[in-house]
Amino acid sequence: MNKLKLSIASTDYDHFRDFRTGDVRAEGIDHTWSMLGHHEVFARFTANREWDVAELSFAKFSAQITRDDCDIVGLPVVCSRLFRFSSFYVNKNAGIKTVEDLKGKRIGSPEWAHSAAVYMRGWMHNDCDVKLQDVHWYQAGANAPGRVEKVELNLPEGVEITRVADKSLSEMLASGEIDCAIIARPPTCFLENHPDVERLFPDYLEMEEDYYDRTKVWPIMHIIAIQKHILDENTWVARNLFNAFNESKRRSLERMFDPAVSRYPLPWVPTYARKIQETFGEDPFPFGIDENRATWEQMLLYTHQQGIAHKHVAPEDIFPKGLMTKVVV
Fold first, then answer.
1. If you ran DSSP here, which 8-state letter would residue 2 be given?
2. Fold topology of 4-80+219-317
């Protein structure tokens, strides 16, 4: 039988490695995998749909999946997930010591539909009474000027964004032109130990552990999107891809937890990994809908509140129907 040829694009994840290299196969599928930086994948897939299957920012995905004429669908496969209390960087001269101090301040992010910033703006708005309208928002490239928004927005009433094309967030934070940056990676000014720049929450690890304990939300940054016509023509593709991604991830975790083999150039990795299981369970990086329901629902609410998603939808609305049908042997 001829296999269906699919093109796939993602960045280099260990939990995708065995699928990408062919050690794990998706039944009935012959894939060509482009391994690129995730910003390139996002931009090219969003603008031109250059692959059949691609990694996509959850925020950008939320904008596209909620269009009336949507041409993609998601797989509940997690490419990247990270807590983000470490992502607040402030200029010391702004007098910001608590999240409440961000009211009336100038805060930048690389894009409005930037998943790390979406989660933290949602936390500020819903949990901390620092409303979207309480902040002067800025958008610019993280460490270099020129970054632009990749999806259309419908900003809530009273929310305005100043877009800066000729400076980076790092430059503006160091100079005091903005008071805070919410950014996925540490800005250059922080990495270079600029005397005026610090993390707002140096105890972010404890905050994140407490947050997960209370909410069971572990923020998902990037997921897998599929062009809808692929599934219209081949309904079986979604589950076969999901199974392959899941098996590839299982093998990655097996490598991580193996106490007898040092697979990673760091000390105590298996010991730390087993400690993580005490908090997150036997599979600390689950795929699926119900396994991540609290996180899916939170992000879908936040993207709608922030004018990224066109409507408020449920997790079942963004994934193929019947995908998670249980198979009992």
1. P
2. D-Maltodextrin-Binding Protein; domain 2 (3.40.190)
